[in-house]
Amino acid sequence: MISAKRDLLNAILLLAFSGLAYIGSTQIPIQGFGKTEANFFPNIIIAVLVFLSVCLLTQSIYRFTKDSKSEKVSIRSAIRSNKKVIITFGLFAAYVFILPYAGYFIASILFLIGLYTVLAPNKNKIVLVILFMIGLVFILYVVFQQVLSVFLPPGILF
To answer: In whole angstroms, what is the distance from residue 41 CA to residue 80 CA?
Structure first.
């Protein structure tokens, strides 16, 4: 029952976040340089997030109605059980905030390192993981900047 309530709350929060993200993606200026506009990829990610959130919402409603026992859940225990989710949202907010200042390359690497430290169960081979993150960010940079002609915020390195 507690997990059904937690999933219901998370699904509602993700849907609200998706709505705000979509509103934010409409504010991206249209450059008209390439084959796709700058809001193309964020809108795809938002659509996938909405689909998965609706799936989670329907699943949690089904489990919520199926379970008959009700338990009281305090706010502290809900926050404690959702600590990783809250920290992940905070990391997303920090990423969006520092992206215009630090640029895509540095902000993305810092964001991925932060996510890794929060979500990874064991932190073995961290040097190898950081090298993989740098390679992934660089490949995504080349694909978006050169192939798709999508503007990415410049920073100190790129």
So the answer is: 33
First CA to last CA across the chain, in angstroms? 49
Tokens of 12: 């509602």
Domain boundaries, the chain: 1-73, 79-157
**Cα–Cα nearest to 105, from 128, 137, 127:** 137
Residue type at 65 in one-letter notation: T
Residue 125 Ramachandran class (φ > 0 left, ψ -120 to 50 alpha, else beta): left
Using CA atoms, how far apart are residues 5 and 11, in angstroms rounded to an integer?
10
Q: Are 62 and 68 in contact (CB under 8 A)?
A: no
Tell me 35's DSSP state: S
- This prediction's pTM: 0.56
Cα–Cα separations (whole angstroms), residue 24 to 19, 29, 44, 142: 9, 11, 14, 24
- Quick: pLDDT tens for 59-111: 888 887 776 565 666 677 767 777 888 888 888 888 888 888 888 888 888 89
Whether 141 and 104 have beta carbons less than 8 Å apart is answered as yes
Q: How far apart are CA 51 and CA 104, in angstroms?
A: 27
